[in-house]
Amino acid sequence: SALAQPGIQRLRAYDPGHDLVAFRRRFEGRHLVELGSNENPYGPSARAKEAVLGTIHDSFRYPDPLGGDLNRALAAKHGVDVGSILLGNGSHELLMQFAQVFAGPGVDVVASKFGFAVYAIAAQCAGATLRVAPCHADAHAMPRGHDLDAIAAAITDTTRLVYLANPNNPTGTWYDADAFAAFMAKVPGDVVVVVDEAYAEFVDAPGWASALTVQARHPNLVVTRTFSKAYALAGLRVGFAIGHPALIAVMERARESFNVNSAGLAAAEAALGDEEHLRWVVARNAEQRAALATALHDRGLRVFPSQTNFLLVQFAEPGDEARVAGIEAALCERGIVLRPMGGYGLGHCLRITVGNADENRRLLAGLDEVRA
Ligand code: PMP
């Protein structure tokens, strides 16, 4: 490890939770309830699955290096030029690449306390200094959510990059369009603001608006989206960014050629064309999210507000992390996988993906057993 650059020596690798492959092998044939990774229980559009099959014969060819068809479909959907779009191997790749391109030694990267873990990893891999702004207090209407005033105040002369998530993972919290407008008015033009909207399709809160609605006004604002969540294509790894063509062009220089594979390109384009499936998934998620939040609340647990496909749930007071770890382990023994939050310093909480009705029922039955 002494051979690694200093940022990486201090780094812990991204924690994907349990070894799910080993877990599936162990529980083979039995019904597993996997609610640890914010995946979409309804699966992708049938059109996307068909499109993947259609790519098999040409899989000896490299994919379209420019992702032309998907780029054009995204540009048409979002009303921007193709030069405003950059495709990534999942949005994770793009989040890493922003730091590579805009940060580096001697540069500050600002993110919020409890912001998505990848922002810190990206900053440290780039050799930049991470400045963590405080989040809203637990008593706030958006507990542990981004405090945009505090984030703006953390920006210094050496800051070149800010990561926001709206909504955020693991908190599920969000901020509204007015707060964001006030924030952008304070950010210097030489600071790139990345707004990670991985869960945007699930949002139904009044007052929320995508940063895409104001992107054209801010050449330093770039928005990331993913096909992993609402479009249910996590395994095919497709994400994208929308920003000013000059910003996208400089990102393009650092992009790995062929970063998005042919199956992913075809599936994402087909999924984009099936708006009915998307609407159906989003409606099911909203209905199940509300029902699950109520059921957990009725069991005396603190459920934080969420506009995503997961809930952050407090199972004990801080200091009683061992009890929560025990509950989590006991659920695992019953084939129910949740995400432990110790890595975020929230070991008294668990993050629960909103499953389908059957999965949520099994989860609640399991919880009632292990907490009895
Ligand atoms: N941003 C957020 C906030 C996420 O929760 C995730 C996935 N957990 C990602 C980005 C990355 O997703 P992907 O690389 O699959 O697009």
UniProtKB/TrEMBL annotation:
Enzyme Commission number(s) of this protein: 2.6.1.9
Pathway: Amino-acid biosynthesis; L-histidine biosynthesis; L-histidine from 5-phospho-alpha-D-ribose 1-diphosphate: step 7/9
Record's keyword terms, sorted: Amino-acid biosynthesis, Aminotransferase, Histidine biosynthesis, Pyridoxal phosphate, Transferase
Catalytic activity field: L-histidinol phosphate + 2-oxoglutarate = 3-(imidazol-4-yl)-2-oxopropyl phosphate + L-glutamate
PROSITE patterns attached to this UniProt entry: AA_TRANSFER_CLASS_2
Every Aminotransferase class I/classII large domain range: 31-365
Needed co-factor(s): pyridoxal 5'-phosphate
Keyword Metal-binding found: no
Keyword flag Cell inner membrane: no
Pfam families reported in the protein's UniProt record: Aminotran_1_2
Residues carrying N6-(pyridoxal phosphate)lysine: K229
Family (UniProt): Belongs to the class-II pyridoxal-phosphate-dependent aminotransferase family. Histidinol-phosphate aminotransferase subfamily.
Subunit structure comment from the entry: Homodimer.
NCBIfam families: hisC (TIGR01141)
HAMAP family reported for this sequence: HisC_aminotrans_2
Protein name: Histidinol-phosphate aminotransferase
Species this chain originates from: Lysobacter hankyongensis
Gene: hisC_1
